[in-house]
Each structure stands twice: as structure tokens, then as C-alpha cells.
Amino acid sequence: VDVEVEEKARKHVDNLTKPLGALGQLEEIVVRLAGMTGEVVPSIRQKATVVMCGDHGVTEEGVSAYPREVTGMMIHNFCRGKAAVNVLSKQFGSRVWVVDVGSRLEELPQGVIPCKIRAGTDNMAQGPAMTRKEAVEALWAGVDMACRMKEEGVQLLAVGEMGIGNTTAGTALTAALTEEPVAGLVGPGTGLDPEALERKRQVIERSLAVNQPDPKDPLDALAKVGGLEIAAMAGVALGASALRLPVVIDGWISTVAAWTAVRMAPRVQPYLIASHLSTEPGHRVLLDRLRLNPLIRADMRLGEGSGAVLAFPLLDGAVAAAEGMATFAELGL
Amino acid sequence: VDVEVEEKARKHVDNLTKPLGALGQLEEIVVRLAGMTGEVVPSIRQKATVVMCGDHGVTEEGVSAYPREVTGMMIHNFCRGKAAVNVLSKQFGSRVWVVDVGSRLEELPQGVIPCKIRAGTDNMAQGPAMTRKEAVEALWAGVDMACRMKEEGVQLLAVGEMGIGNTTAGTALTAALTEEPVAGLVGPGTGLDPEALERKRQVIERSLAVNQPDPKDPLDALAKVGGLEIAAMAGVALGASALRLPVVIDGWISTVAAWTAVRMAPRVQPYLIASHLSTEPGHRVLLDRLRLNPLIRADMRLGEGSGAVLAFPLLDGAVAAAEGMATFAELGL
User: What span, in angstroms and rounded, lies between the C-alpha atoms of A305 and B1?
Assistant: First the structure.
């Protein structure tokens, strides 16, 4: 990021008609966006959310409150514009890109970008979710998507996902790379009761025991206990940061992906913006490691990128304030 | 509020294509707005912020980082549309009403609504800030403003303020009515250093000792250690709730006002929506007493209604989701 432009943005913000620092995180965000984009007053008008979709073999183990068919149903719902991420995106004037990197859908509805690496992962409780090569392909699908979005004029992007079973994979991946106990990371996802949550924890423990992912090799962990959509989101973060595009992360799964990307390439970190704090317990653990402050606390746990899109108007507001407010000098003080 | 409409809204929200409760506070807000407005899918298109302005005699004691003249300067800034609350309101398509209930400005710029009760309060460290009659008049100015906003088609309103010295008055009023120690409520306001903060604490203690406000009589406390703009904001909350208008509260001062209104009339409480959590320590104390969850955590401490306006798009998003999302039945599940 451009530290000189950051300094200029900081000076500009400090002169606006408000007590020093009184706009708090909004000021920080403007300064950070300036550094990312290289513009003192950054332009983030064109925004889009990429929703990476994939299925998970581990759903066989009964780790989700919903059947795995819901992934495909929701892809159809995205294409009809009737899911939360669509409605919020329409409300705030941003676009949605729906990408199939790994669902079990055979026929894709109109509007999905087809990038299927394979039709769902294997059951990680019995062996690796995918091969290292497949994980690399999914990463590249994400990098490629970031490039395509940049080419189409997107100035800031959000990452979201759909994949029944992916909080199980996301928790396993986080436990593998942080070496933190699963019990402190696992949560009810779409809504498990305590008994089912305990089963989910055991399935994650077993997946880690069976696969022995290397905590020092994010790609190894991604292949063995990750997911196709998680790898693709990590790829989006890698690509976007290389293209100097700010990346708004959503909840638990997209943060896992972003954090995996940071583990692969630390230069991703300064391009990440946190949107909200999910109720999934692992989310805060990773946000703390990424040193990010989420703007919204609404107890959301939906995914799709819904929380990230909800932060778009707050980012717009921050930039508008920097652009439109008077300075104290103009006021005669 | 209409409990039957709330129940209908809850049922509608529960059938949308998302795990039960996955939109968290957004769902709660839609249900609450339904109860307030009596509409299952509430309409909150027309939004406005009323900025109540007043001066404080206690500024003589050196309790603010800014000179008291800044109140008048900022009234001019509001009228030029160049303050944070203006810029954010323009960004999100809402209006700003600037009301002078007690500034020391003699000539008001075009665009201010003149409701001056008196030109600033007296120094509460030496005696009552105003008379009980004046406090009642300021309250009524607020009630009247809520009526005028309703007449002009406003469907949801936010309360904001401008008044150098008002975190001192707000803290004194809160301490008087909660009987909590001043030390746990007082904060740096516009930006005091630790030494000046200690002086501010002492001035507040002295004001309470000199005036002996009655903790059981909110009007007595409001007159003795409150402020004209604080009383007017309390009046807005009283008026709005009677008119079934949702009221979005901003930071520390507007929450003090809303809480004072609730102490006067408990029926105000269900009409309050919290926007953000300010860095002023007393804010959380009152939000907890009001059992409200602020949606935004951005370390803001500006006032004017700026944080409340920032929450407008989140409320719009919540309503849009309830209106535009498919149900699982439509998806065939």
C-alpha cells in the first residue's frame, strides 16, 4: 500500500469539521482505502460481491442442519435474485457474481459463471477433501475472477460463499493452520443443536487426525480439510490484493479464506476490510489474528457475502464524509 | 406497539431463504419496526434527522476541548450542508432539520428552525442550568418538531445534537438519574487530556452537589443539570413514540435524552433503535439499561446524529431483505 497517500489522506481527514478522530473507524477506513487505491479520496463507486459455491463430501457425516441439496437450490435462488445477498446488493447498488467452483449441480441456471473444478469435495473424515492440484486450480479460479472483476471496472469487492457443510471445513482448516483447539472454534453453523454440534466437533477432530494437514503449508491444509469455494475465495483475495483492489470479508468462512490467503502471502493483509462480527466463535479468533475491527455487530451468520454487502454503504459514507465535509479553516476557526 | 403485527412479521421473516435467525439483529429490527408502524413490511423510505442545538453555561469551567463559539459555527456549517450529518444524510437520501432551541447565536443563518427558549443555559456548577418551566418549553419544542416531521411525511427519525459542553451536562444528568458514580460515566467528549478530564469530573460532581437534582424527578434533573438541546431531544422521543414513529438514537447525548424520556414515559422505550456504540463510557451504561443493541461499532464520538444516519442504510437493508427475499417454499424445500 502507498504510505505517502495514506499520510495525505490522514492530514485531509484531520482538518475536517469534527473533533480529531471523532469519526473513528470511518477515518481509518478512508486512510486505508487511500493507501490501497493510491487516491487521497478513494473512489469505490463500482462494487461487487463474488459468491463462490461448492459442495462438501463431509455432509455425509451429518454435520449440517440442512441437506447438501440446499447448495444447488441456493445457486438457483441467487440467479433469480431472491437471496439475501441479491436483495442487499440491489438495495446498495452493487453487483453479484455467482461462481460455481465445486457444486454437485449438473445443469447450471443462467447467470452462474461456470468454473467447476469438481462436483463437490470428498469426505474429509475419511481422506483428503481434494488433491493439492485441485486446490491450486480452485485458487486460480479465484485469482482469475478478481482479474475479470477488475477488468469490468469493479473498484472494491466482497467475498461470499454458499456450500452446505462449509463451516465444518472452515473450522477444520482454521484448527489445522492455527493449531488452536477445535472446541474453541466450532459453532452451530446453520443451526445445530448441542448434540449435533458435539458430533460436528468429533468429525472435525477425526478429519484432522486422518489427514494430518501440515500447519506450515496452507495449501496442504486447504486441499486436505478445506473446500473448493474456500480455496476460490482465498484466490480472490490473492488476486485482488495484487491488483490493489480492496477486499471486504464477510463472516466466518470468507474470513477463513482470507486468512489462508494471508498465510500464503502476507501482502494480502493490508487489502482486507472486515464487515461484521458473526456469531460463529471462530470468527473473532481470526479477526483478532488479522487485527481487523468489524464495523457491524448484528449477530448475523448467513454467509453469501450478506454481511459484507451490508458494510458497503458504511464505506460509501466514510468516503462521502472525507469528500464532502468542510474544513475548520473554511469555517474560520 | 402492535404485538399481533410483530408476530406476523416474525412468521414472514422465519420463512425466508436463510437459516432461522441467520440475519440476526436485522430480523429483530424488521419485527420491531412492524410492531411500531403496524405494517408487516414496514415502510421507512422517508427518513430525517433532527439536530437540536444549544449552548451550555458550564463551558465557563473549561470542560470542553473547543470554545463555546463552535456551537454557532457548526450551526452555520449545518446550513451550508457541509457537516458530517449533512454529507451522510445526502449520501443515504435522508433530510436534516436543524433546530435552534438554545444557542447563543443572535442571527440565525437561513435554514435553521428558530425555537430558541433562551440563549444558552446558566453555569450549572453555580446553580440550576435553567428553570423547570424552560425545561418544559424545550421538551415541548421537541414534541412539536416530531409532529411537524410526521406531518411532512417522515416515517422514521433520528435525533442528533450540537452543543459545546453537552457531554458535561449529559454526564451530570445521567449520574443524577441513575445515581451511578460520575467516574464511570464521564469521558473525554471532543477530546480532553487526562488532566482536563479530571477537572470535568470535578465540575460535574460540583454541579450535582450544588443543585441536588431529584433522582426520581427526571424533569427536575433535566432543568438543573441538563441542557436545552437535551430536553428538546427527549421531547422528540416523547412525541415520536406517541405518533408511532421509530426513533433512531445516536451517541452518548442523544441516548441520555432518550433515556430521560423513557424515565418520564416508559412507552417511549419500544420505539427506540440504537445505531452505534460511542467511545464515551456512559453510552454503554445507558444502552444496557435500555436493553438496546447498537448495530455499528466504529468508535465514533461526533454527535450531530452522524452515527444514527449511518445506521439508516442498515435499516433499509433489513426491510429490503424482508420484502425481496424468496421463501423456502418458493424454492421447493
Answer: 33
Do A36 and A82 reside in the same domain of the chain?
Answer: no
The set of cell numbers assigned to B171 is 454526564
The answer to whether residues A111 and A251 belong to one domain is yes
Q: Are residues B169 and B57 in the same domain?
A: yes
**Active-site entry in B6, B304, B323, B330:** B304
Can you tell me the mean pLDDT for B170-198? 95
pLDDT per residue over B40-56, tens digit each?
999 999 999 999 999 99
Same domain for A169 and A310, yes or no, is: yes
**In sequence order, what are the residues at sequence separation of 6 or more whose Cβ sits closer than 8 angstroms to the Cβ of residue B246?**
B32, B33, B36, B37, B44, B155, B156, B157, B240, B271, B273
Q: Is A73 on the interface with B (CB under 8 A)?
A: yes
| pLDDT tens column, A231-249 | 999 999 999 999 999 999 9
What is the arithmetic mean of pLDDT over B124-128? 98
Residue of B nearest to A312 (CA): B313
Number of domains in chain B: 2
Do A162 and A214 fall within a single domain?
yes
Which candidate in B87, B89, B315 is best for mutational testing of the A interface (most A CBs within 10 A)?
A: B87
Asked if the model's pLDDT at residue A328 lies above 90, the reply is no
Range of the domain at A118: 47-314
Taking a contact as any Cβ pair under 8 Å apart, which residues of chain A between 228 and 287 contact chain B? 279
Chain A interface includes B82 (CB < 8 A): yes
Residue B234 CA to chain centroid, in angstroms? 8
